[in-house]
Amino acid sequence: MSIAFFDSGIGGLTVLREAARMLPDEDFIFFADTLHVPYGPKSKQQVTEYVCEAAERILGEKVKALVIACNTATSVAATELRRVYEVPVIGMEPAVKPAVEMNGAGGRRVLVLATELTLSQAKYMELVSRVDDHGIVDSLPMPELVEYCERLNFDPVELGEYFRRKFEPFDLNAYGTIVLGCTHYPYYAPLLESMLPSHIRVIDGSAGTVRRLSTVLNERGITGGGSGKVRFMNSANDAAYNEKLERAWAVLHSPTE
């Protein structure tokens, strides 16, 4: 049986990449909700409905675990999926806790980049409240970045200008860590690292999510049995989009990434 990874579009492939590295003896299905991408600008109710519809279809594939490789979808729908289904459901959250631990009391600040919907949810606010004892976490919505990514636009000049505009209100010298709180954003990590001050670390939640997945698989005794095979699916049954997923997968494995 395979492990399913789900996102609104190509972003969740960044999490799948980490799983393929850490769990080479598993097979994977990647499902993109192309009918409704992007999730960030939509309402909580809409996204919950979309995620539940997608989960019903994905679990028809007889998977042994479902990873919601999307911070927005996790924040609004993970609890509901766990209530309805017995299969393990692994969600994501922005890597705020490790970022705060990296900076510590008296250190530099943390800037979390995410979608508007993720940043507006009680789940995110509770996370920050729980770990940010020194008030060092700031948030910045970057909704356009998902759309750039879905168009496979990785042009360093255009994206560099976009990032400069977004960061203009911030004194980047005050920040020690930038958290990529959307799974689309790690596609741009190399560009960010090249243009940000050298002291800033850029992190995301992929590794932590896959470690949690591995723990759950081991606890249930359902590890292995595969060879790293990846199968792509999407909610529109669009062969052209599956080809786009394959191109995006290749981008993540290119020498520059």
UniProtKB/TrEMBL annotation:
<keyword id="KW-0133">Cell shape</keyword>
<feature type="active site" description="Proton donor/acceptor">
    <location>
        <position position="182"/>
    </location>
</feature>
<dbReference type="InterPro" id="IPR015942">
    <property type="entry name" value="Asp/Glu/hydantoin_racemase"/>
</dbReference>
<comment type="pathway">
    <text>Cell wall biogenesis; peptidoglycan biosynthesis.</text>
</comment>
<feature type="binding site">
    <location>
        <begin position="183"/>
        <end position="184"/>
    </location>
    <ligand>
        <name>substrate</name>
    </ligand>
</feature>
<dbReference type="Pfam" id="PF01177">
    <property type="entry name" value="Asp_Glu_race"/>
</dbReference>
<feature type="binding site">
    <location>
        <begin position="71"/>
        <end position="72"/>
    </location>
    <ligand>
        <name>substrate</name>
    </ligand>
</feature>
<keyword id="KW-0573">Peptidoglycan synthesis</keyword>
<comment type="function">
    <text>Provides the (R)-glutamate required for cell wall biosynthesis.</text>
</comment>
<dbReference type="InterPro" id="IPR004391">
    <property type="entry name" value="Glu_race"/>
</dbReference>
<protein>
    <recommendedName>
        <fullName>Glutamate racemase</fullName>
        <ecNumber>5.1.1.3</ecNumber>
    </recommendedName>
</protein>
<keyword id="KW-0413">Isomerase</keyword>
<feature type="binding site">
    <location>
        <begin position="39"/>
        <end position="40"/>
    </location>
    <ligand>
        <name>substrate</name>
    </ligand>
</feature>
<comment type="similarity">
    <text>Belongs to the aspartate/glutamate racemases family.</text>
</comment>
<keyword id="KW-0961">Cell wall biogenesis/degradation</keyword>
<dbReference type="InterPro" id="IPR018187">
    <property type="entry name" value="Asp/Glu_racemase_AS_1"/>
</dbReference>
<feature type="binding site">
    <location>
        <begin position="7"/>
        <end position="8"/>
    </location>
    <ligand>
        <name>substrate</name>
    </ligand>
</feature>
<feature type="active site" description="Proton donor/acceptor">
    <location>
        <position position="70"/>
    </location>
</feature>
<dbReference type="InterPro" id="IPR001920">
    <property type="entry name" value="Asp/Glu_race"/>
</dbReference>
